[in-house]
Structures are given as structure tokens and as C-alpha cells.
Amino acid sequence: MRLFMSAYETLLSGKPGDKLFLLGNEAIARGAIEAGVAVATTYPGTPSSEVGDILYEIGAEAGMKFEFSVNEKVAMESAFAASLAGLKSFVFMKHVGLNVASDVLMSISYTGIRGPMVIMSADDPSMFSSQNEQDNRYYAHFAHVPLIEPSNPQEAKDFLKVAFEISKMESLPVIFRTTTRISHMRGTVTLSPVSAPNLKGRFAKGGRSFVSLPSNSYDYKDELIDKMRRIGTHDFQGILNRSEGDRESRIGFISSGEAYNVLRDVLDKHQVNAEVLKLGITNPMPENIAREFLSRHGTIIVVEEVDPIIESDIRAIADVGFPEVTVLGKMDGTVPMSHETSPNTLEEALAGILDFNITDRKPYKQEQELPPRPPVLCAGCPHRATYFAVKRAVKMLKLDDPVYSTDIGCYSLGNYEPFSEADIMLEMGSSIGVGSGFTRATDQRVISFIGDSTFFHAGIPALVNAVNNNSRMLVVIMDNDVTAMTGRQPNPGTPVSQTAGRQKSQSIENIVRSLGVDSLKTVDPYDLKETLGAIMEGLKNEGVSVVIAKRECAILRDNRMRKEGHEVKYHVVPESCSSCFNCVENFACPALSISNGKVTIDPVLCDGCGVCSQPYVCPFKAIEVSNVEN
Amino acid sequence: MKTNILLAGVGGQGVLTLGLIISRAALEQGENVIMSEIHGLAQRGGSVTVEVRIGNFRAPIIPDGDVDLTIGMEPLETMRSLSRAPTGSRVIMSTEKLAPVSLSIRHEEYPDLRVLTESISDNFHLGTIDAVSVARKSGSFRAANIAILGFAIGTGWLNLSLECTRNQIRTIFSKKSLEINLKALEAGLEMGKSAQQEFVERLA
To answer: Residues 228..257 of A with a Cβ closer than 8 Å to B: which?
Structure first.
């Protein structure tokens, strides 16, 4: 969409002093450019994805080398290598991506780095698009690395540059933690000058060893602790940490990130002028600043997103030096332990303590129950056709209780009605690992669903394992050419024609064949007959069967066809529609609905895939191509 | 001015673009603005809400009960988002229905629009526009978000300078789609003005 393209261009062309209305992630991309990052790597994941989209598009022009890596672990290894060659490197991912990369993180804090390196973790409190709301600030404590927490797009840009400075100071990677609200909030950002990246890297031999053999790591651990102690005594010239409000207030607040924003709004609304210590670096805890703050207030309330991490540190400091100070937060139940900080909940929590009344207008109480609108596969999505075919195949073969093991991607939506083809889903690649595990435990048929990008990311080792252990299972690889759910980023299988600067596209079919699976078939899911046949055949086999359902993402197809100037739409011929409702009940395309007892197709939503016109969906041939409309 | 605007609709209807134009126009007028956009699991077809906060706010989340104006691109989604708005606040709704899949798989039809509209207008100040057909008349159904924007300004409920709004539309669209969108803005605006006239007469 041109809208966002133009915003990306201004990220590059914007002059110092310009004020832009930026998404947190856009501000972070600009921050990387201002910092002069030489190498940036990522695996896309909401809420971090836009940073990669932007750097993919304009990074080269900014003089940066950008890589969509196969997974987060490789992304971090890649950024680490750039750092060892002396370059400034930036690796970013969603919170659960850091689980994948944690094997790298845990050791690079010991070995240390050379060029400054920042690791961004975009956490997802309240789980808007994730399987959990893990608080990745623990990783900073776990690995003994500094942790920076911005509160808005301006800070996101500016603090990122400070993070690189801190990294440089002690040759340590620094974790830069955002949350959904920060990454996906828009606000005004004032630009600073950009610095041209130094791209001339060279790995200098000799000096410090980066071989993490026990003999080296043993010494590096003591060094690491010393480095963190030194950073803990630094005051960062008031850039990262600041206190505001009445220094004499009975109650003092300590907060960071988005929780600070919510706290600030609640205090402002009720004109509470309590002192608030806003922390931008929370590991190591700036102990001198914290001690001074504790000495001024009888009660301290800690408000943070998600787990009580600052609170634990503050309680420890209070226990040792300030036994008369009461610390409140999540641990005693003043603030909830789960989910993002809600303005209403925080207001209620503070009303009693701060003695203010909530005289708000109350939200409207819905009397009627509204039909839900859960997230759905897009009109024209090839995955819908695949799920339809698998369900039909299971029915035709009269399979009793097959186990559906699914994975992370758009196709996770196969969980919802009418497909209900998801029994288990954990993390990237789990569909095949868990699926294969079931074959050890039960003789139920196992069907695993995995997307192309997820297959490359973590599916391959699991498939090797399934073949090696002769698991009796069907793996359906739903290949739509791109990493669709996060915004259609390229992956190793994306056709070369669709991406700039790539010479090769890897074939999933060749990879799977080389693993020695028992049966393999590639089909076009828009062809229901062919797809159904392949799935039935796969389900009859005894060993590992793979069906690759290959068809470009509907949004890609949509954009392509619109550009080519032809939009195809389908409609229902009312006289032919028998109102059997097979299409709405079992195919459930969002463009289909029932009106006056007949099925209709919304021409705005219809994607023109035509799958609903096939006899498996409409046995009465009531769905036909329309003339193109505006 | 301290205003909290909640925008609701279905993914693909241009709710994000609508939020962006409102925010940028308000910024051009010299206001402080923050906006939140949450990208859920679906690329298209799920419920979408965008929150625009004009004034000195820090958090992009509007507290439940603090919504001043709700703009809904779809009746059911408008109704759904009203559980965050206080009774008696202002609501602008586009009347074109998009039936959620959850209905049709149970062979159910969309709730009666008249009943839905009445239950909203019993509890809120409601202005309605068939933004999709206005947009279609202006050249493309895709301009429905801009038609409802014009309507909201026309009613006087969305306090945005028309000039700033036009400027922002110009920065986002180009060529043919710019023409269509400016036309949709004007058409919506006129309808908003006459709706405002009706409100005044009804009150008098």
C-alpha cells in the first residue's frame, strides 16, 4: 500500500528536527539508521515485524546490510558475527523468538562482542498475537546483559541509540525491550541526524578468544559480573532515568515502559502529584538512584509490564537498607499479575490508596449477545481450500478421531469453526515434533499442518526425526510463497521474481524428497479434486507422507491481479441456489453469507478464487463468474 | 481539546487509514495526538479497532467509559465497540453490513439492522450514513472510510479542519484514487451537514 511506502521513504529522507507521526516500530527503524547500524537481521514476528519490513525496503539505501534470516537463532548468530568483525549490528524479533535465539544469547554475554550489538525483543502483554505473554526482561537477568525499556516512539528511537552506546561501553550485547503498545503506538517523533554506517568489517585474530570452551567461559563469568556492576553505577546523564512530581509525596511510584504511560494518565486525571521514578534501564537496576528514591518515600508502588521484575529488585533493596519502607506491586496483589496494565484496573487499584473517587461515565452495558467475529482466513485464502479438502478426506476415509497438530501462521486459524482442524499448537515447528510424538503413544491417525516459512524455521529437524523414527503421519505443508501472517515477508522458498537482491529460491519439495519420506505429492489447493486425492492417498500410507499444498497467498494474488488490471468476482445465481448451505457451513468464506434464505457473495470481499464454484462446495453449479466491477 | 476517538470496523475496510488521516489532520491543526493500532491474528476479515487520543495523553489505550466519539465502519462492529463508550456519547455508523462467518455457518442471518440501529440510538447520539454506497457513487467502494470521515466532520462531531483533512488525504492518495477520495469526502460532508441540521431541528 502506498500509504506505508511513503512513510518509509520519509524515514530515510527526514531531516534533523523534522517531526514525523511514527509507529513505534517505524521510530525504531529510524533509530537504527540514525545509529549507523551496519548489519540488521530478523525473523518476522508480531509485534516486531514492521521494523524488518522497513529495513528490507530502505535499509540498503541507508547503507545497511539487512537479512531476513531463516529463524531467530540464525539471525542472532549473524548479527553476532557482524559485531565480531567490528560492525554495529542490530537483531530484532518477537518475544518468543528470543526463546529460539536464547542458546546464542546465553553464551555471547560470556564471550562478549566487539562492534556494538543490540537485541530487540518485542513482548506481547495480553497476547494480542502470541501464544503467551512471557516477560523477556528475565532474559536480561538470565544472561547478565543490560536491559533498556522505552515508553513511546520518541524514546524508542532515542533509547535505541543509547543502547548501542552502552553496548560499546562494556562490549556486551544489550536487550532493547518493547511491548505491543510501544511498537504499535503512533506518536510524534523529532528526528536527529543519521550516521553513515561503517561497513568495512574484519575479524581480527588474536586477543580475546570467542571460543566458548569451559576454560575460557570460567574466567569470562567473573568479567561479566564486573561489567554489569560497572554499568549499574552509571547514571546515563539522566537520559534513561528521570523522576518527576513532588519529592515530598508520601507515596512514590517506580515504573517503566507502557505501564508508565498508563500510570501517568491515571495520576494526571486525578491530579495526583506524587513523585514518579521512570526507569529506562532496568537491568542492572540503577541502585544509587533507587536507594535515593526509597529514602524519600514511606510507600513505594511499582507498576510494570508484565512480571514483578523491577519490584523484586526494589523489594531486595528495601529489605537490606530501608526496612521501614512499604513496597507494593504485583507480589502483594495491589496490581494484577496477568495481562497488560489496564487504565481502568490501575485506577481502581490506586483509588483506595491515593484516596480519590472514580466519578467516571460508565461504559454502556451490552444487553444483546452479539455474534462474534473471530479472526478468519481471508477470502480466497488457499489454506481454506486445503482445510476443506482434509476434512472431506477424513470423512470419506471414515477416520476415527484423527489428531490435528498445527503450527504458527495464518493457518492456525484452521482452529476455528467450521474446520476445527487444530488440537495442539505450541511453537514454531511443533506440529511435526508433537505429531510424530503422538505416533509413539496412540494409533490414532496424525495430521500435521505447517506453513512454508515455519517449515524452514524449525520444521526440517522435526521431519528428519519423524522419518528416522518411521512415524505414521501425514504432514501437510501449506506453502503460500511468503511469511504471510506477519505481513508477507520473503522466506527461503519465496520465488526469486518476488524479491529484490536474491539469487536463489529453495524448493521445499526437493528438501522433503531428500529426507526420504515414504510419499510426497505437491498439489494446487485451488484444485479440490487433486488436493482431496493426494490427501486421501497420504492418509492411507503407513510411514511419513507429505502433501505440499502450494499456491500463492491470496493477498499477493489480489495485489498482483489488481495491478494487472483485472479483478474477478463470483456471484450466486439465486434460481440455481438450492439453499443447501454446504458452502457457508463447510467452506465458510467470509464473502459468503445468507440473505433472505439464499446464499449471496459480497463482491467487495470476494477474491475471485472460484474454489466455491467447484462441485465439492456447490454441487448445484449455482456460483458463477461475474463481470468485473469497481 | 481532549478527545478520545474509537474507530471500529472489519479488517480490509480501511480503519487504519481512517485513523491515520484523523490523527495527522489533528496534528496539522497543532494538537498532540497518539494512536494505537493493534494487528491481530487475521490479515483481513477480523474485528479491528483503532484508538485516536487527541490531547495530553501518554498511553494509547482509551480507558473504558472515556470514549467521546465512536466511528464504526460496520453496524455489528459499531455495536460491539460501544461496550467501551459511555451511554449518551456520540456515535457515527456506516450502515453497510458485513456478515461474520460465525453467523452463516449456523445458517443464521445478520441481526435486523433496524433493531440494531434503534438500540444504539436509544442509548447514544447516533448519526448514520451508508458510506459504501456514497463511496461507490464517488468512484469506488474502497473510499467508504473517507466518506464516513466527511460525514463525521459535517455533523460537527469530529472537530477537524476540512483544509487539514484534505491536505492529509492528498499526502496519502494519488492520481485517480485521490480524486475519488476527495469526492467521497465532499459527498460525506454534505450528508453530515444535513444530518446535523436534522439533529438541530429535532432538538428544537
So the answer is: none
Burial degree of A462 (CB within 10 A; 0-12, 13-18, 19+): buried
Residue A345 near chain B (CB below 8 Å): no
Q: How far apart are CA A377 and CA A382, in angstroms?
A: 9
Residue A290 in this model has a pLDDT that exceeds 60: yes
State the CATH number of the domain containing residue A248: 3.40.50.920
**CB-CB contact of A618 with A587 (8 Å):** no
Contacts of A417 in chain B (CB under 8 A): 102, 105
Mean local confidence (pLDDT), A60-72: 96
Longest dimension (CA), chain B: 50
Contacts of A190 in chain B (CB under 8 A): none
C-beta atoms of A264 and B59 within 8 A: yes
pLDDT at residue B44 in the model: 79
Percent of chain B at pLDDT exceeding 70: 97
> A306 near A125, Cβ under 8 Å?
yes
* Complex-level ipTM: 0.96
User: How large is the average pLDDT for residues A601-605?
Assistant: 88
Q: Determine whether the interchain pair B103/A371 forms a contact, defined as Cβ–Cβ distance below 8 Å.
A: yes
Inter-chain CB proximity B82 and A484 less than 8 Å: no
Q: Please give the residue of chain B at the shortest CA–CA distance from A483.
A: B43
Domain locations in chain B as residue ranges: 3-203
As a whole number, the mean pLDDT across chain A is: 95
A-chain residues near B56 (CB < 8 A): 268
Beta strands in A329-427 (DSSP E): 403-405
Over range B88-96, report the average pLDDT. Answer: 97
At residue A629 the predicted structure's pLDDT band, cuts being 50, 70 and 90, is very low
Residue A483 located in a structural domain = yes
Is the Cβ of A601 closer than 8 Å to some Cβ of chain B? no
Instruction: Count structural domains, chain A.
Output: 4
CB contact under 8 A, A594 and B86: no
> Are residues A615 and A488 part of one domain?
no
pTM for the whole thing?
Answer: 0.96
Query: Distance from first CA to last CA of chain B, Å, rounded?
Result: 27
Is A426 found in the same domain as A327?
A: no
Q: What is the CATH number of the domain that holds A532?
A: 3.40.50.970
Give the pLDDT of residue A57: 93
Cβ–Cβ contact A9 with B under 8 A: no
Q: What is the per-residue burial (b if ≥16 Cβ within 10 Å, else e) of A21-53?
A: bbbbbbbbbbbbbbbbbbbbbbbbbbbbbbbbb
Check whether B20 has a pLDDT greater than 60: yes
Minimum CA–CA partner of A374 in chain B: B46
pLDDT surpassing 90 at residue B134 = yes
Domain B3-203, CATH homologous superfamily name and number: Pyruvate-ferredoxin oxidoreductase, PFOR, domain III (3.40.920.10)
Domain boundary among A191, A215, A233: A233
**Do residue A271 and residue A290 come from a single domain?**
yes
Res B204 pLDDT > 90: no
Of A215, A233, A251, the one marking the end of a domain is: A233
Neighbours of A626 (CB within 10 A): 16
